Structures are given as C-alpha cells and as structure tokens.
Amino acid sequence: MEEDIFKNGAILPLMEEFYTLQGEGFFTGSAAYFIRIGGCDIGCRWCDTKLSWNRELHPLTPIDEILDRVESYQAPTIVVTGGEPSMYPLDYITTRAHARGIQTNIETSGAYTVTGAWDWICLSPKKNSPPFDLEIYNRCHELKMIISEPSDFEWAEANASKIHPDCKLYLQPEWSQHKIILPLIIEYVKKNTKWKVSLQAHKFMRIP
User: Fold this and answer.
1) Digit-coded pLDDT (tens) for 56-85
2) How much is the CA Rg of the chain, to the nearest whole Å?
3) In 3D, which of 4, 133, 10, 127 has the Cα closest to residue 66?
4) DSSP characters over 81-131
5) How far apart (Å, rounded) are the C-alpha atoms in residues 62 and 60?
C-alpha cells in the first residue's frame, strides 16, 4: 500500500469506533475503546464485518483525533481491529497512545507484518491467508482460533505448535454455527486442556 497516503500511520481509514466491554478472549468483560480500521483482503466467508473489506468506503481519519475521543471516555485501553489492521503502518498509533498512558491491544490475522509496540497481540490466523511473518508467533500473547467446522481443530493445533509457551490459547465458535460447534469445542477442551473456550460474549450481552 502507498504509505504516503497514510502519513506513516498518522491517518488511517476508520470504519467505526466505540467504547464498550471486550467480548472475546483473555480480556472478556474489560472496558476498552475499539478502533476498527477499514480494509481487508482475506475474505473469510463467515466474516461478520464484511463492510470493513473495502478501504475506500471508510474516511481517512487522524489518529490523534481518535485518541482525543479515547481520552474523553477515560478508556484505559484501545483495541485496534479490522478489517485487517496489519495492512497499515501502526508505529504511530502505539507511540501516541503510550504517550497518553493508554494500553495498546491489537487483533490481527497476522497476514501482514504487525508493526508498532503493542502491549497485547491477539493472533487469529486464517486458513486462506496464514501469517506472512512467522515472528508473530513469538510476539503474540493470545492465540484465538475460530472454529466453524470440525476440521478447524487440526488447523488450530497446527498454529498452536508454533507459538511460545506463555501464549494463551483459545477456541472460539464461529457465531453463525455456535449452537452446533460449541458442544464440540467443549468436549475438545476437556480432552485438550491447554485450550480455553472463548465466546462472543458481547453478542449475548447485546453490546457493540
């Protein structure tokens, strides 16, 4: 991508932003300000934010303005998600957030090299576009594997074999299949206890 358009990450295509509770993974139930960046070329068939795929639909927005709004809510943490945020230069947002005392978390498939100094990296690899830079397996704090069919357990284990020992491991049912897939995940975790279950709790709570 043409980095000059984004002024080295000082502006990025913003799909949406909101202050809420985290609904997935390690930080479930914790307050955070979500920053959803537009643009994704992975194309997961079950993606629940397909509006994020086309970067051109989302206005280029100054990061400092977004962080001003984060501070107005006194939000302790930002979660940068997408789309696929690793498509963009991200050093600027982490540097500016840290200068304001804000924790920086990111959710990424790892399809591109993840730039920036992140306090927490949630890696969620996708079969159709696996991590490009294998160093992400050493950097991530949390591995969140989406399970939409039984064969995905094998994909989850293939990724778990690459991460470092301190990384948290989660299996999460794909939402549209959760009533079918969740019982399988429960039984799998009972037999493979290194994993934990992650649910999209925000959807049960009916919050963003």
Assistant:
1) 999 999 999 999 999 999 999 999 999 999
2) 17
3) 10
4) ESS-GGGS--HHHHHHHHHTT-EEEEEE--SS---S--SEEEE--BTTB--
5) 7
- The Cα 205–Cα 81 span in angstroms is 20
Whether the Cβ atoms of residue 147 and residue 175 lie closer than 8 Å to each other:
no
Q: What is the pLDDT of residues 81-126, one digit of tens each?
A: 999 999 999 999 999 999 999 999 999 999 999 999 999 999 999 9
Half-sphere exposure of 173 (CA within 13 A, CB side): 18
**Residue with tokens 């969620």, as numbered in its chain:** 124
Give which of 129, 81, 121, 119 is closest to 97, Cα–Cα.
Answer: 119
- Return the H-helix or E-strand segment holding 156: helix 152-160
* Cα distance between the two ends of the chain: 30
Q: What are phi and psi of 106, to 5 degrees?
A: -135, 145
127: left (phi over 0), alpha (psi -120 to 50) or beta: alpha
CB atoms near residue 162 (< 10 Å):
16
Other Cβ atoms less than 10 A from the Cβ of 153: the count is 17
Give me the sheet containing 120-123, strands edge to edge. Answer: 60-62, 11-21, 31-37, 77-81, 103-108, 120-123, 142-147, 168-173, 196-197
Cβ atoms of 106 and 81 within 8 Å: the answer is: yes
Domain 3-205 is found in CATH 3.20.20.70: yes
